Amino acid sequence: MEERVGAAHIAEILGIASDLADPSGRNSPETAFRMWRVAQLPDLLRPDSPAPQWGRAAFRAYDLELEKVLASA
Fold first, then answer.
1. Distance (Å, rounded) from C-alpha 72 to C-alpha 8?
2. Neighbouring residues of 51: CB distance < 8 A, sequence distance ≥ 6
3. What is the 3-state secondary structure (H, E, C) of the chain?
4. Mean pLDDT, range 36-48, rounded to an integer
5. How far apart are CA 7 and CA 4, in angstroms?
6. For residues 39 and 73, which has the higher predicted lDDT (pLDDT)?
7. ∠37-43-72 over CA atoms, to 5°?
8. Does 27 have pLDDT greater than 80?
9. Rounded to an integer, what distance in angstroms lies between the CA atom of residue 20 and that of residue 34?
């Protein structure tokens, strides 16, 4: 799936999941995304990561698109 379309779907899913986890509004898609970015993305992008190059490129592309989508929300 093209990154821009996929990022929009992921942002929508994060919004639904955030509302289900805590309907008070304290959780947000932006927070969930940033926690994933800090906790998971660095290990995926390390040179010694077992992820293939095409996978790393996809994670980078989705990271950039999700940042754009969530920043504009």
1. 11
2. 44, 45, 59
3. CCHHHHHHHHHHHHHHHHHHHCCCCCCCHHHHHHHHHHHCHHHHHCCCCCCCHHHHHHHHHHHHHHHHHHHHC
4. 94
5. 5
6. 39
7. 15
8. yes
9. 18
CB-CB contact of 66 with 10 (8 Å): yes
How far is residue 60 from each of residues 3, 16, 71, measured CA to CA in Å? Answer: 10, 24, 17
User: Is-contact 8 69, C-beta < 8 A?
Assistant: yes
* Torsion angle (degrees, nearest 10) of CA 54, 56, 57, 63: 150
**What's the predicted TM-score (pTM) here?**
0.79
Judge contact between 63 and 41, C-beta under 8 A: yes
Q: Which tokens is 60 given?
A: 């980078």
